[in-house]
């Protein structure tokens, strides 16, 4: 019994492992050597960040879409007053699933 198990194991290992010794295939073509790529330091090239014009356009667009600080502070004060009165503050934003008019209480602007 042990002999048959050993033969099965040797047979399976011969299928799974590569050949070596005199049974190795000599006519297998050699793989082409890979060309060595020169090591390039990341410090060798300049930083590839946004240009001055791209950064200015980004900040200009951001300034147009955000509220001025005075309006933000006014909205925070109104929210605090509504909280003190135990009412929900009618907060809405672009793309909100509900309009500002969906709230029962209106804000005095």
Automatic annotation (TrEMBL):
Source domain of life: Bacteria
Annotated spans, Disordered: 22-46
Stated name of the protein: Uncharacterized protein
Protein's organism: Streptomyces finlayi
